[in-house]
Amino acid sequence: MIVGQDAQDLTYCLGILSQSHGGNWVVSLPPDLEVYQAELEALLGRVFSGHKASVPENFALAQQMSLNWCMSKCREVGISFEESLSKLSSPVPAGE
Fewer CB within 10 Å, N- or C-terminus of the chain? Predict the structure, then answer.
């Protein structure tokens, strides 16, 4: 069972990249990283170009890549990853 901070972390991790009803991927970054959103979108586009976005394995991999990118970007720009968690408003749930 996931409780407290672990549940918030999991929600954040899954909310970084969600999927709309139409199957499009939706990036939701904390305010401190929003300025870099185009960089993450370009990375995902390069990696998954020509691959079916609807394949569950690709979406799960893209979520993990997005999380790793966020952690790396936080280190790069000197932002605490934990602080970025607290600044993130409710992420878009998958399927919205």
Answer: N
CB contact at 8 A, 18 and 94: yes
Q: Give dist(CA 23, CA 44) in Å, integer.
A: 15
Q: Kind of pairing, strands 25-27 and 17-19?
A: antiparallel
Q: Are 16 and 70 in contact (CB under 8 A)?
A: yes
Model pTM above 0.90: no
Q: What is the pLDDT of residues 48-94, one digit of tens each?
A: 887 766 677 888 899 999 999 999 999 999 999 888 877 765 444 44
Q: Per DSSP, which regions of 1-96 are E strands?
A: 17-19, 25-27
Residues paired with residue 25 on neighbouring β-strands, in sequence order = 19
